[in-house]
Write a structure and sequence with these properties.
- The chain is an alpha+beta fold and about 150 residues long.
- It has three helices and six strands, in the order ββααββββα.
- The chain has a four-stranded antiparallel β-sheet with strand order 3-4-5-6. The protein has a two-stranded antiparallel ribbon with strand order 1-2.
- It is globular.
Length: about 150
């Protein structure tokens, strides 16, 4: 793929972000804003927002739109989110980790399938374990990252 896949979230204690048995509160963020900017220079964050908006619109209008796993977390589609990282999925498309502003910060892994160049469809969603440490929540919800929450 033409994108450089760089991980914004660094796991400590030898755990990886896409491991569903991830210990709680072990995330540490990189200080390099260029990594975040690289993620947001791709179409991924905006394709997630487009897919979420399509889901919301389909529910309001009653029109049909196929969204695999879309019924699992309908409360997050209208919330602001932050794309923490993405990587190729062995089944095609990308696995994307987002953090959602709710009463608490919640994290989710999305499967976004590439249907054409720079166009992705939302295929599945799964909530990742939390909660996060106060330091991480304070950092990602701070003014420095505010423009990256969509």
């Amino acid at each position: 793929m033409k994108y450089v896949y760089r991980v914004f979230i660094i796991m400590i204690l030898g755990s990886f972000l896409f491991n569903s048995n991830m210990p709680q509160g072990v995330l540490a963020f990189a200080d390099n804003m260029s990594v975040v900017q690289e993620i947001y220079n791709t179409p991924i964050p905006f394709e997630i927002r487009r897919n979420f908006n399509d889901y919301i619109h389909a529910n309001k209008t009653g029109s049909e739109k196929i969204v695999v796993d879309g019924g699992k977390f309908p409360d997050i589609y209208n919330k602001r989110f932050f794309v923490a990282n993405f990587q190729p999925n062995p089944f095609g498309g990308l696995l994307v980790t987002i953090m959602v502003k709710d009463q608490n910060i919640r994290s989710f892994r999305l499967w976004m399938y590439d249907i054409s160049e720079d166009v992705y469809d939302f295929r599945s969603i799964e909530e990742l374990p939390g909660p996060f440490s106060e330091e991480i929540v304070m950092e990602i919800t701070g003014a420095v990252y505010n423009d990256f929450w969509l």
